[in-house]
């Protein structure tokens, strides 16, 4: 197990104990990393705060990327209480339910803008705020899905957003490389999370697809956390601009 003592991680988008953000935060903390956690709003706080407190998080605060000034306030608190940042974990994505359940052809203009703003531009904005605190290099991680490169029914506009997210990872990796900051995406397999609950027939599809996977079992948020911990470790110092799959082999089928 990698030793990450003395390191600070900012985890954006903790929802509950099923979220991928939780799997990552838990794995980093197990390795001695100090954690700062954001949650979306008061409703999410009821579940997120007890989890963050259980990790001894140095910062537990709201961050709605659509609200002007909240991101700046959050990172100001991080700077005040933690001093520096080594890892930024971006676990933020959203699309309107009607744009996932209907035909992609009928995606609304406002729905398209919403999905791209929250799911993609937020990575750029949060990276811009985190980078000045990465005084000795660092790692930026985001979360993607196979729907970025293959058609997944009912994933629709989110697939397009994830494709843009993966492209953003490559451009950020290029620009931040001279500062010894790596940028990667983890493309996770099917996991029951709050986000996936918005995808039509997700549970049925998940159950039916499991037997077709090379490893014949779905992944857990812990699997994502373990990969994230590796990507934040010295062993991954020269891995950047990549989308790395942890999906029991779904992407090769």
Question: Outline of this structure?
Answer:
It contains eight helices and seven strands; from the N terminus they run βαβαβαβααβαβααβ.
Structural write-up:
The protein has about 250 residues and is an alpha/beta fold. It has a single domain (about 10-245), classed as NAD(P)-binding Rossmann-like Domain (Rossmann fold, 3-Layer(aba) Sandwich), CATH 3.40.50. It has helices at about 20-30, 40-55, 70-80, 95-100, 110-130, 155-175, 200-210, 220-230, and strands spanning about 10, 35-40, 60, 85-90, 140-145, 180-190, 245. Strands 3-2-1-4-5-6-7 form a 7-stranded parallel beta sheet, with helices on both faces. Helix 1 links the parallel strand 1 and strand 2. The mean pLDDT is about 95.
Features:
253 residues, alpha/beta, Rossmann fold, seven-stranded parallel β-sheet, 7 strands, 42% helix, globular
Topology:
Elements: E1 8-12, H1 20-30, E2 34-39, H2 42-54, E3 59-62, H3 70-82, E4 87-90, H4 97-101, H5 109-130, E5 138-144, H6 156-176, E6 181-188, H7 202-210, H8 221-231, E7 243-246
Parallel strand pairs: 1-2, 1-4, 2-3, 4-5, 5-6, 6-7
Helix pairs in contact: 1-8, 5-6
Number of helices: 8
Arrangement of strands in the largest sheet: 3-2-1-4-5-6-7
Q: Bin the helical content.
A: 40-55%
Instruction: Tell me the strand percentage band.
Output: 15-25%
Query: What top-tier CATH class fits best?
Result: Alpha Beta
Q: In one word, what is the shape?
A: globular
Number of strands: 7
């Amino acid at each position: 197990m990698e030793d990450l003592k003395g390191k600070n991680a900012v985890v954006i988008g903790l929802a509950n104990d099923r979220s991928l953000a939780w799997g990552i935060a838990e794995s980093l903390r197990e390795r001695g990393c100090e954690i700062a956690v954001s949650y979306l709003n008061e409703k999410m706080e009821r579940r997120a705060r007890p989890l963050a407190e259980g990790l001894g998080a140095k910062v537990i605060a709201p961050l709605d990327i659509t609200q002007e000034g909240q991101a700046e306030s959050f990172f100001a608190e991080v700077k005040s209480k933690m001093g520096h940042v080594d890892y930024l974990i971006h676990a933020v994505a959203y699309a309107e339910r009607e744009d996932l359940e209907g035909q992609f052809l009928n995606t609304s203009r406002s729905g398209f803008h919403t999905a791209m703003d929250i799911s993609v531009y937020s990575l750029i904005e949060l990276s811009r705020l985190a980078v000045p605190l990465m005084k000795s290099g660092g790692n930026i991680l985001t979360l993607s899905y196979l729907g970025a490169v293959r058609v997944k029914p009912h994933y629709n506009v989110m697939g397009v957003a994830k494709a843009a997210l993966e492209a953003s990872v490559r451009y950020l990796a290029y620009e931040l490389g001279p500062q010894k900051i790596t940028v990667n995406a983890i493309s996770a397999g099917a996991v029951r999370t709050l986000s996936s609950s918005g995808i039509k027939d997700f549970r049925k599809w998940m159950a039916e697809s499991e037997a077709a996977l090379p490893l014949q079992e779905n992944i857990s948020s812990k699997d994502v956390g373990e990969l994230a911990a590796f990507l934040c470790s010295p062993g991954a110092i020269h891995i950047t601009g990549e989308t790395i799959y942890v999906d029991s082999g779904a992407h090769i089928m």
